[in-house]
Automatic annotation (TrEMBL):
Encoding gene (name): ndk
HAMAP family assigned: NDP_kinase
Family: Belongs to the NDK family.
Binding sites annotated in the UniProt record for ATP: K10, F58, R86, T92, R103, N113
Pfam families: NDK
Signal peptide: none
Protein task: Major role in the synthesis of nucleoside triphosphates other than ATP. The ATP gamma phosphate is transferred to the NDP beta phosphate via a ping-pong mechanism, using a phosphorylated active-site intermediate.
Name by which UniProt lists this protein: Nucleoside diphosphate kinase
Entry-linked InterPro entries: NDK-like_dom, NDK-like_dom_sf, Nucleoside_diP_kinase, Nucleoside_diP_kinase_AS
Catalytic activity, reaction form: a 2'-deoxyribonucleoside 5'-diphosphate + ATP = a 2'-deoxyribonucleoside 5'-triphosphate + ADP; a ribonucleoside 5'-diphosphate + ATP = a ribonucleoside 5'-triphosphate + ADP
PROSITE patterns xrefs: NDPK, NDPK_LIKE
GO CC annotation terms, alphabetical: cytoplasm
Active-site positions on this chain: H116
Taxonomic lineage from the root: Bacteria, Pseudomonadati, Pseudomonadota, Alphaproteobacteria, Rhodobacterales
């Protein structure tokens, strides 16, 4: 089925001017960008977005990293968009990511891993609503 998923191009990637190369990977995989904006998160916003990870040892490092530079938040649409996006991103740790994936080609480490993508339909809906109003989604 046609789905929507939420994506973040993270600070390590925007800083290295990789936004276009990452978007090209999404588009080559058949995903359409139906919403997109470049923003810089506040610490409170980062902590809220990553709230499910608040007890993890890497939480503070993760939030500090996510506010360190601008990010690009996007909604991607396509057939099985959630799984397709996860395939294009590759494994969380770039050392485990398959050849040709975004994280294999661009990620620096498990933390500075260039992209975030929703892991399930419920989280996709929540994450999209966190950053976008309905009017901003243009299919
Ligand atoms: P993301 O999909 O954005 O969701 C949670 C993030 O936590 C994950 O990507 C990783 O970038 C980050 N993360 C996971 N494990 C670690 C770790 N051991 N150290 C730092 N960051 C991590």
């Amino acid at each position: 089925a046609i789905q929507r998923t939420f994506s973040i191009i993270k600070p390590d990637a925007t800083k290295r001017n990789l936004t276009g190369q990452i978007v090209a990977k999404f588009e080559e995989a058949g995903l359409r960008i139906v919403a997109s904006k470049r923003i810089q998160l506040t610490l409170a916003q980062a902590q809220q977005f990553y709230g499910v990870h608040s007890e993890r040892p890497f939480f503070d490092e993760l939030c500090e990293f996510m506010i360190s530079e601008p990010i690009v938040v996007q909604v991607l649409e396509g057939e099985d968009a959630i799984a397709k996006n996860r395939e294009v991103m590759g494994a969380t740790n770039p050392e485990d990511a398959a050849p040709g994936t975004i994280r294999k080609e661009f990620a620096l480490s498990i933390g500075e891993n260039s992209v975030h993508g929703s892991d399930a339909p419920e989280t996709a809906a929540e994450e999209i609503a966190f950053f976008f109003s309905g009017l901003e989604l243009v299919g």
